[in-house]
Batch of 3 targets.
Target 1
Amino acid sequence: MPAQKGLTAAVLNAAKPGDKPFKLYDRDRLYVLVSVAGSKRWAWAYRLDGKDHTLQLGRYPDVSIIDARKARAAAAKHVEAGQHPGEVNKETIAAVKKEQANSFGPIAAEWIDANRKTWSPWYLQQVETFLTRYAINGDLGAMPIRAITVPDVVRMLKGVSEGKIRTGEERKKGSPTIAILLRQWCSAVFRYAILDGRADRNPVSDLKASDVIKRAPVKNNLALSPAEFRKLLTALPGYGGNRVTKIAIELLALFFVRTGELRQAEWKEFDFDARQWTVPAVRMKKKNVGDHIVPLSDQAVALLTELKAITGTVKTGRDWLFRNTRRPAECMSATTVNRALEGMGFNGSASIGFSAHGFRGTASTLLHEQGFKPEVIEVQLAHTEKNAVKKAYNKARYLTERVVLMQSWSDYVEALKLDIKTDSGEPATA
């Protein structure tokens, strides 16, 4: 009797030759004949015109289990029409191979090869590992790329995000970060296939990551209270991480810029005589606002001087302030600061959910409470003006007042860091 569930690769790979040939049955009279020499060949037993016949379908593993089943199904249609499938076998196998070549897995592998030389080794390893594990070797891999629908992609992304996909290793929880990357990479594979007509549309383009990938609740722009801010700053010296990472956290607290603007900063952007850091427009969230000036307070200059003695001596490549310790040609990873905050107990599960981006909300809230003009705060935050008349951005706008604001803010942060309190319990300000 043919096995109801069919053969598996594990069973076929483990099959050893015996003293005489034997058959391993799949289903629908499809089987593999194992010879005494150890070769394994697919065959299908069918009946036509009152007689039994056998159709050879190729050698395993050259013809996979999925391909053999497809070939058998195609051959069965010829038998139903009164034809011997052997007469059209070559055309059937060719059609199966053509369909396989247009399935998601081979096209995804092509896309990886096409980009292999342009990616860093670390990024290439990420793409190959996770795209192969969850998509190429998963359900999507064997599907014709034209047949893949939005629900097919959603099932895969949700499975990874929620930890419902098992790939040999058991996962206790999901991985939303990997799911987000998979969405990005799968979208790129569909676009690649569209270019030469192997796909008509990109189903991933209909999906936002937030539609299917649920992160643990995190308040990215959480505004810390003065007490919470003091707790973070006083805990920082005792954190066992790299000194450069600690400086990055302190500068984010002083500058309240976006993390990417600081991580990708280069020493050439700093004018210590003018006491200014000019963030190039290309690195701003709204690139049309132009360059952005960050006045340097006394505390910021002291931190930058210390940092330059550590990272400013590298003579090759980009002159990053924050060089990646594993990949010196690149800047600090996007996750480094948040991992440090997690290690300090301020980010991650069972914490208040404070991330690096939260320094912006903290500064905005507390500076407004301290009575600084809202328009000055907004310009220093590099928020664009919605009013079309005022939208043109001037990097020097309110610069004199912003110099005062940034020094006052640094004094406030220093008082928190040193745990200096007034009679009211709040930090002393200059």
Target 2
Amino acid sequence: MTPSTCLTRLDEHQATILGILQRGERLLKAPERDAPALARARWELARALLAYQGFKHRELFDPVAASGCPRRAPVARRLKGECEAVGESFRAYVAKWSAVSVLDCWAEYQPAALRLIAQVRDHLARERRETAALLTA
């Protein structure tokens, strides 16, 4: 797969995730609290993030790390580690908020969900820049 094709696919995954985040943010800021819609968005995001992680590891980070290139391989391993850390943070978030009624914990849930959205957005932006540099180095 060419670097251009990889970046195009990365952008497609990210666009899907960013769309879900935008919908989730609207739900969190809406005057009416819709717990079922929030749960659906949470699970939709989980599926999209898992697909994105699988793509990045299989198609980007693992092949570059395996290449042994002294400049690129360590960067690929670092990016993969950061991806895994964000994934673990998201899994902990899903486990916590899937086990309770978010409406009963709204004062804690809403800011936590908004922080998670910001964290994922920041990660995606940083990862896009660094992956582009990795693939074009």
Target 3
Amino acid sequence: MSNFDFDLFVIGAGSGGVRASRIAASHGARVAVAEEHRVGGTCVIRGCVPKKLLVYGAHFAEDLKDARQFGWDVPDCKFDWDRLRDNVLAEVTRLEGLYGQTLENHKVTVFKTRATVVGPQKVRLADGQEISAERILIATGGWPHVPEFPGSEHAITSNEVFHLEKLPKRVVIAGGGYIANEFAGIFNEFGSKVTIVNRGDTILRGYDEQIRDRLLQISMTKGIEFRFNAPFQSIERNDDGSLTVNLENCDAIQADAVLVAAGRVPNSKGLGLEEAGVELDEHGAIKVDERNQSSVPSIFAVGDVTNRIQLTPVAIREGQAFADTFFGNKPTLVDYANVPSAVFSHPPIGAVGMTEAEARNKLGSIRVYTSDFRAMKNVLAGRNERALYKMVVNAATDQVVGLHMIGPDAPEILQAAAIAVKAGLTKADFDNTVALHPSMAEELVLLK
């Protein structure tokens, strides 16, 4: 028997931590997990799952109007934020229970408290109890970054947005990334007046330029306002409870809520990592090698706390690879090439591989194919909103190196198409595939 209390101690029961715990336990390891918030982590509790449920709820605003053009006698409908909020939070609680049950079924010991590292193979719980483990895995994820400025305490983040007591009539959203654009679409469809304020001049940095320009155009058509090159100066609380947002280079904006979506930082503070000898980068991310091992051989990390690719499925892959490598005798490395991503904006975006600019810089000679069209549903509904599909091809090999889409169900379509990019298929392979008609996805095999 081992001289340690556990073979593996995991700090953080989010997507990566739960997967690593479950797989390690299935390989016969004695596993414990400490979670100071709620089992499930950011994705399940305060991230992609409740956010996607709000996205579904927001879609009904347009669907109910469009239904009239399809013969349905739909009366004017009133949106009830309290009902949706409570139903979403109830679903989150249900999922939290399932995650806890999964750990219990695999005989993983769960400590519902904070844990910190006090040595290469020792952790301390909030009550002072010290526990030894042969290996320690840090899976504490990320945390919303709130820049410091006067009145920043009046702003909320994506952590609190799901718990709003009432729907704000006017919302200012700080940031230009996926979280900012997703919540802009959600609140706009719910009837709020939305203004996105960005300290730079670009939204969705890292996505293909044509795709992000199309989202900007459509968002403005839907009534979302944008302020670029406008850093926050201060937020003031008015006597009536409203907020005054003071900006550089712009007039002040009156709001009922300010949501800061200015990125996420690794959640590594106060864990005792540096004292234990774990090396962090300038952003607080744990530096790890390809096997998720830190500068301390017995301490590992997966997920957003490593600041590699901040996506739930990547954290899950890393957790699985870690457990299989060190407890299953199955050495596994995560392949980070061609990881698909989505923005659940209105309309949504799906992307995989290189953007046009990246491909030109890396490959030199490329071919670009686009399809700019109105979805059949939008035509009959009388909506002028257009979808845009874009394929980037290596001219020397005919290999498809990038796919970028904005339009209805783009992420659902992109998931299958990402397999083709990952497999290195060519434009000829797409051309040789018979179209599925009538569908939006058929545009991918009809690009000329």
